[in-house]
Amino acid sequence: MSNDDCIFCQIVDGDIPSRTVFEDDTAKAFLDANPLSPGHTLVIPKEHHETLEDTPEDVAAHVFGALHRLNTAVQHAVDADGANVAFNDGEAAGQEVPHVHGHIIPRFEDDGGRPIHAIVGERPDLSDAKLDEIAEKIHNQRD
Ligand code: AMP
Ligand code: ZN
């Protein structure tokens, strides 16, 4: 389903141009318009889903398959030394476009960038008991 107000749905519908690097019935990938590094690529489901939680598992798995293949293609295309592959899942995590998308951000030796561990300001100091409690809650949440 397409959302008229969504820029990524408009890209899927061809109403906004994109530098498409991959497309099939379920997923589409295109270069980020404001790249963090050469080759910065976004991979999206064609259907409008806002977050990973909203995305049906088969669609999410398909998007991840595309991410997996494109991660190699992108890194080879720009001769990268690595990549950060990540989702900003939800506004609190920095998601600006509310149509779920995975980023492939090529990385280069000495590019001055930082690892994914740098996304939070300060790490929480969690006791063993608290970690056990969190692990149990996550375990109990699974379908
Ligand atoms: P996020 O903060 O994870 O929602 O990232 C949204 C990304 O979409 C940003 O990296 C933007 O540069 C990118 N973006 C926004 N509009 C477009 C567009 N029309 N074409 C390609 N990328 C876009
Ligand atoms: Zn959308």
What compounds are bound to the protein?
Answer: adenosine monophosphate, zinc ion
Distance linking N and C termini: 25 Å
Low-confidence stretches: none
CATH homologous group name: HIT-like
Q: How many separate structural domains?
A: 1
Q: What characteristic shape results from the CA principal axes? A: globular
> What's the average pLDDT?
96
Return the CATH class: Alpha Beta
In the CATH hierarchy, the architecture is 2-Layer Sandwich
CATH third-level topology: HIT family, subunit A
List SSEs in N-to-C order. Answer: HEEEHEEH
SS elements, strand count: 5
Task: Specify the number of helices.
Answer: 3
Query: Which structural category fits the helices and strands?
Result: alpha+beta
Percentage beta strand: 15-25%
Give a nutshell description of this structure.
The protein has one domain: HIT family, subunit A.
